[in-house]
Amino acid sequence: MSDFAINPLVLKENIAAALGDKAAKITVALGEVTVEVSAENYLQAAQILRDAPACRFEQMMDLCGLDYSDYKGVGREGPRFCVALHLLSVSLNQRVRLKVFAVDDDMPVLPSITELWNSANWFEREAFDLFGIVFEGHNDLRRILTDYGFIGHPFRKDFPTTGHVEMRYDAESKRVVYQPVTIEPREITPRIIREDNYGGLH
């Protein structure tokens, strides 16, 4: 392994050369390289990033879903759902972020990359569970954090903060029961203490 991480501008050039027209956009910000690819080119681009001699991203460190429907409070042009991966090359001491947007907002579908990096297995299940992004080719795509009977995807920005159902232990039936949410949504304004000597402080 090299002693020093490669210059991000050099890494950008190396990735651009390896991916060619498979890369929709490559940017450098805060010393980090981000590559955006289309859903159509996602699987092939990921394999190139893993195998190309100047890339060699052997490890997928993280994969997460993103919902851009209310990005910075105003939304974003283009598709709503995105998947971002963080890839690591141990042999070349370099990192890259790979982003891909699902084409259909109503039914976001992307290819699974578990055949390239088996570490993607649980991460893709999490993105499916929390954002509703379907990974085609995943051999066990089911919920991983929420209950099997859970309705909806709680990290979507239009999902209510209270949820749809709540559960409680019912002493009479001696079991856990589900019921519609009874919490009333309300806005809480913090209490401001203006006493000069509050808590004995001077």
Write the layout of secondary structure elements.
Layout: H1 8-19, E1 25-29, E2 32-37, H2 42-51, E3 59-67, E4 81-89, E5 94-101, E6 109-111, H3 120-131, E7 134-136, E8 165-170, E9 175-180
Would you kindly provide a written description of the structure presented here, covering whatever features stand out?
- The chain has a domain at 8-146: Beta Polymerase, domain 2, CATH 3.30.460.
- 17% of the residues lie in helices and 27% in strands.
- The protein contains three helices and nine strands, in the order αββαββββαβββ.
- The strands form three sheets. It has a five-stranded mixed sheet.
- A hairpin with a 4-residue loop joins strand 4 (81-89) and strand 5.
- The mean pLDDT is 89.
Features:
single chain, 202 residues, alpha/beta, Beta Polymerase, domain 2, five-stranded mixed beta sheet, two-stranded parallel ribbon, 3 helices, 17% helix, globular
- Average the pLDDT over all residues and give the rounded result: 89
* Termini Cα gap: 58 Å
pLDDT < 50 stretches: none
Strand content: 25-35%
Q: Largest sheet, order of strands side by side? A: 1-2-5-4-3
- Share of helical residues: 10-25%
Brief sketch in words of this structure:
With 202 residues, the protein is an alpha/beta fold.
